[in-house]
Amino acid sequence: MLPVLLRNDANLSKEEWRTYCILQLLSVSSDAVAKEGAVINLNRNAAWNELKETKVPKLYISSKDGDLADEKCKEANEKELIPYLEKMGNYEIAYLPGSHFIYKTEPEKCRSIIEEFLSDLAGNPIK
Fold first, then answer.
1. CA atoms of 48 and 53, how far apart (whole Å)
2. Where are the chain's structural domains?
3. How far does CA 43 lie from the centroid of its chain?
4. Which residues contact 116 (CB under 8 A, 6 or more apart)?
C-alpha cells in the first residue's frame, strides 16, 4: 500500500524505489511515532508557550492555507497560521497553494520565493 501513497519524484530506479519504500515503511509505525502521538497535545502546548518574538527574519511558505478565496483556508489562516507567526514576530508569508509537501511538488517556485526573500534581506538581487 505504501508505494501507492508515495511519489517517485526523483525518478529512482526500481531497486532504489523499493529501498526507499522500505525505509519509509520502517519509519511510519515506530514506537517513537506512537509515543509522540500519545503526548501530542502536551508537546504542542509546551511548544506554543515557549515561542518568543524575535527580530530574526522569517519566511513561511503556506501551501495548506494558500487559497484565501476558500473559506476554510481563510479561516485556518486567521485562527492558526497568523497567530503562530505573530507570536514569533518579524515574518513574511508567501502563499503557494498545493500539497503539504509543496517543496517537492513546486521546487522551482519555492526556490524563487526563498531567493526573493533572501535578496530583499540582503538589499540586492540574487542572480
1. 12
2. 1-50, 53-127
3. 18
4. 126
